[in-house]
Write a structure and sequence with these properties.
It is built from seven helices and three strands, in the order H-E-H-H-E-E-H-H-H-H. It is mostly helical and 164 residues long. Helix 4 crosses helix 6 and helix 5 crosses helix 6. The longest helix has 34 residues.
């Protein structure tokens, strides 16, 4: 093996294992968070707190704190079902350190309200909902269904001409 090939392989191994406090490229961060690079660039436009260092030519370098913040944003958006606006509110109300802690798994944001999720739907697993219905919500659901049926019957009566 030529000397240049051995030196290149040694450099490649050194690059693969960076120190924990080393800056990361956008590709390294995207691979670590399992999101495309363009998503990271988009999040920079929506979250003013995400400010990677930019070198000559516009190359982005993320500090460890930036990576923790991005991991927290990803957890809020993809893991907990927040919208961009809801995640912005969590960041504004609780601060960067809280969202970084969410990214490290040291903290958890409260469940999003319907206004913080897309189309008003709370994105939660189905099992807790079934458990809530089994505990005592079944009667309330039956009552709500009866009210909805009464409303439907009233609307149908308004739509149809009276029989003579």
């Amino acid at each position: 093996m030529p000397l240049a090939a051995v030196a290149g392989a040694a450099d490649e191994g050194a690059r693969a294992e960076k120190a924990p406090d080393a800056f990361r490229t956008i590709k390294e961060v995207a691979d670590e968070l399992d999101v495309p690079q363009h998503v990271l660039r988009f999040w920079e436009t929506r979250f003013a707190q995400i400010r990677p260092v930019k070198r000559a030519g516009g190359r982005r370098y993320y500090r460890p704190g930036d990576v923790d913040l991005l991991r927290g944003v990803r957890q809020l958006l993809h893991g907990q079902g927040y919208t961009i606006r809801g995640a912005q509110r969590v960041l504004r109300e609780n601060g960067v350190r809280f969202v970084q802690a969410v990214g490290r798994g040291e903290a958890a944001a409260a469940a999003p309200s319907p206004q913080e999720t897309e189309a008003g739907a709370i994105l939660l697993p189905a099992e807790p909902a079934r458990a809530a219905v089994a505990v005592g919500g079944q009667a309330a659901l039956k009552e709500a269904l009866a009210e909805l049926r009464a409303c439907r019957d009233a609307l149908v009566a308004l739509r149809l001409p009276p029989e003579s």
